[in-house]
Design brief:
Blueprint lengths: L2 H52 L3 E12 L3 H6 L1 E2 L4 E2 L9 H6 L2 E6 L21 H9 L3 E3 L9 H14 L3 E3 L10 E5 L2 E9 L11 H7 L5 H13 L4 E7 L10 H13 L3 E5 L4 E9 L2 E9 L1 E3 L4 H4 L6 E12 L4 E19 L2 E8 L10 H15 L5
Parallel strand pairs: 1-4, 1-13, 4-5, 5-6, 8-9, 9-10, 10-12
Antiparallel strand pairs: 1-14, 2-3, 7-8, 11-12, 14-15, 15-16
Helix pairs in contact: 7-8
């Protein structure tokens, strides 16, 4: 082989080796870049997934409760429209409507019955109210009525049954009384939070005799510790994230809860109740937070009168004009499957009674610091006094 051919072969080989080395270096460089890019992408994705897992998924709901709704004879007369032959109670709730509607779930104690016009309409002692009273409560924004109280049987079995049927007609649900056998625990799903609702009363003013023993057991939730304990535990077993008890108890016109109320209230919390709304005394009683198993639970022993004709002029007791709307904000952390009370808001109320066209008219006045100065001078003193008396009993 001559020298020229050998030189040519060497040059070709050298070029080949150089090209191969260049491609190999480029491949290694690209692979390094790819690896770094993929590493960043995967690492970022993992970090995002970890952030998503760490961020709690929560939901909140607000529960509003108000006290005793009673319609005495002057209220019924004042709501009558002679032109149409019907009754209109809507004005009573016009100023509190925005508070009631704002809550996700609103409850009130309906302390009367709607047995029908054929029985005549009555106030105390054996109430029977026009069905339009329910229409006004619906229009104001209430969702659920507690119907277990000492006036549940004022018109006997007919009154109890007709009231529940009327409630259904207006789209209400009720707790505490029943017109047929069945599950006595109501669970409402609000913003994906399951709220168990129960209601009980100490008795029915001696009208229990209008039902058989079996009917009494099936149609009215009377206060019985074993029964309440069993119901609360069952509500939890049924999936309630939170258990609310509306209970008719205590002594009328007493601004301090009785020992029996205090004792039963704490027992209910120990059994699994998280919120207890009390009614019956017709005056405000204190509220408090009770810690149990590391969680805060809330009791207000009496919400007072939401609306009635009980007042300083009729029974010489100014405190019966006072009521309170309590809004409890609850929060569920789905990652922990835990529901807590997040916040409690108090809105005191005062029942304003005045005369128009010769009949009595009633309006519930909500009181908070933002509207105090807007109250008419003629009633400002009473409203301010009512606010101070009520808030002095609320746990801070």
């Amino acid at each position: 082989m001559n020298k020229n051919k050998l030189l040519l072969i060497l040059i070709v080989l050298l070029i080949g080796v150089t090209v191969f080395s260049y491609h190999m270096s480029q491949e290694e460089s690209i692979n390094e870049d790819d690896r770094e890019f993929l590493s960043e992408e995967i690492g970022g994705q993992v970090q995002k997934e970890e952030e998503i897992k760490q961020e709690p998924i929560v939901s909140t709901a607000t529960i509003l409760a108000a006290g005793d709704v009673m319609f005495h004879k002057p209220q019924i007369i004042g709501a009558y429209d002679s032109k149409s032959g019907t009754y209109d109670f809507n004005d009573c709730f016009q100023y509190v409507k925005k508070y009631i509607e704002k809550a996700d779930l609103s409850l009130v104690n309906f302390e009367t019955v709607t047995a029908g016009s054929d029985r005549g309409f009555h106030g105390y002692p054996n109430f029977n109210s026009p069905v339009e009273s329910l229409e006004a409560l619906k229009n104001s924004g209430f969702d659920i009525l507690s119907t277990a109280n000492n006036h549940s049987l004022d018109q006997g079995k007919v009154g109890l049954v007709n009231t529940i049927e009327a409630l259904k007609k207006y789209g209400f649900k009720n707790i505490g009384t029943f017109n047929e056998p069945g599950d006595k625990i109501l669970i409402e799903k609000i913003n994906d939070i399951n709220i168990g609702l129960l209601s009980y009363t100490y008795g029915c003013n001696g009208m229990e005799y209008t039902l058989t023993e079996e009917e009494l057991n099936n149609m009215i939730n009377l206060i019985d510790e074993e029964r309440i304990k069993t119901d609360i535990e069952k509500a939890v077993e049924m999936g309630s994230d939170l258990v609310v008890v509306f209970i008719h108890w205590g002594n009328e016109y007493q601004r301090e809860p009785s020992e029996e109320q205090l004792e039963l209230g704490r027992k209910m919390v120990e059994w699994g109740a998280n919120i207890v709304f009390g009614s019956h005394p017709h005056v405000i009683q204190k509220s408090e937070i009770i810690e149990h198993n590391g969680k805060d639970n809330f009791i207000i022993y009496s919400l007072g009168n939401f609306i009635s004709n009980q007042r300083r002029e009729t029974i010489n007791n100014k405190y019966t004009e006072d009521g309170i709307m309590v809004t409890v904000e609850v929060e569920k952390d789905f990652s922990k499957d835990e529901t807590i009370i997040k916040n409690i808001t108090y809105t005191p109320t005062w029942v304003y009674k005045y005369s128009k066209d010769g009949v009595a008219k009633y309006e519930i006045i909500p009181i908070d610091e933002s509207n105090m100065e807007q109250i008419d001078d003629a009633i400002h003193g009473k409203v301010k006094e009512s606010y101070e008396n009520t808030m002095s009993l609320m746990g801070q």
